[in-house]
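[agent] plan:
  1. take the single chain provided in the ticket
  2. run structure prediction with default settings
  3. attach structure tokens to the ticket
  4. add a short note for the reviewer (M.T.)
[agent] executing step 1
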Amino acid sequence: MGTTTRYRFRDYTVRAEADPLTLPTFTAVCVTGDERDCGATSGDVHSPDELVRWIAAHCAQTRHGLYERTTRETVCAEPGAWR
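[agent] step 2 finished; step 3 output follows
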């Protein structure tokens, strides 16, 4: 005879706003290219304006026009009731 195992899980609420104690990070990667992407990256910056300046500078140097932008924020998960 087999044994039965029960697991209980908690409901979690994730707040939509970012954690006020951490800074968001922004990153851009140049994806311009026919055969392959350029791949130049801004690295992590902490303001949208700083990211725009990096994109503008890279575009001015290379004439590349396509970028993938990523925004990361730390959010809080709050445990709720067990179910």
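[agent] step 4 note for reviewer: Helices lie at 48-62.
[agent] ticket updated
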